[in-house]
Here is the input.
Amino acid sequence: MAKDIEVGGQGEFHAKDYHDPPPAPLIDAEELTKWSFYRAIIAEFIATLLFLYITVLTVIGYKSQTDANHGGDGCGGVGILGIAWAFGGMIFVLVYCTAGISGGHINPAVTFGLFLARKVSLVRAVMYMVAQCLGAICGCGLVKAFQKSYYTRYGGGANELADGYSTGTGLGAEIIGTFVLVYTVFSATDPKRNARDSHVPVLAPLPIGFAVFMVHLATIPVTGTGINPARSLGAAVIYNKDKAWDDQVCTNRI
Here is the structure.
């Protein structure tokens, strides 16, 4: 237990205690008997489905609006800034909606990091990752079902290494970008923060969504920005082209 000192309104000092939550067990069979466990898995599936549906539609819409071969305007569309806002904004919304149900992971890299930190059990981590990947595949599948011609013509939102960049450069960009995201998740959800920084109101989904936004601005020109193995895998599965699969080494890191 640690203590922090908070100054009261009348010049008084109050001790404020905080406790680190106990580490999650490696195998927690009791979870399998609880409805809250399955509800959390469903929440991760739906959140990742919605995340891919909205963001991939945004990417395809931007490419169609700027395609000069089909009457598009090269300066039209939402641009890279709008795409980054779509990804960051959806993460903000979905983490806010699901944080109280599943923790709002929506990303196997985040789940894996929290598992290594003993924040979730192995059973929960595996089931979350499966739900996230299936949700991503279904989300991209919905986009293809609604806009098949646009989906195929404009790359299906799949992550591909841009021309002029080596595989090592793409891999490095994805590793650093994923680190920024996971580091922000741990910082924003630190149980000690409420004690140390009680004067600074922090809405955890906001810095997490903003981290996603910033990383997208930096790495969209390189890899299209993965930083989420489920996002990269789901788009590759539905798009199913050789280059999208070949570049998975850059955009999937776990």
About this structure: Residues 1-9 have pLDDT under 50 and may be disordered. The chain is about 60% helix and 5% strand. The first strand starts at residue 2 and ends at 7. The first helix runs from residue 35 to 65.
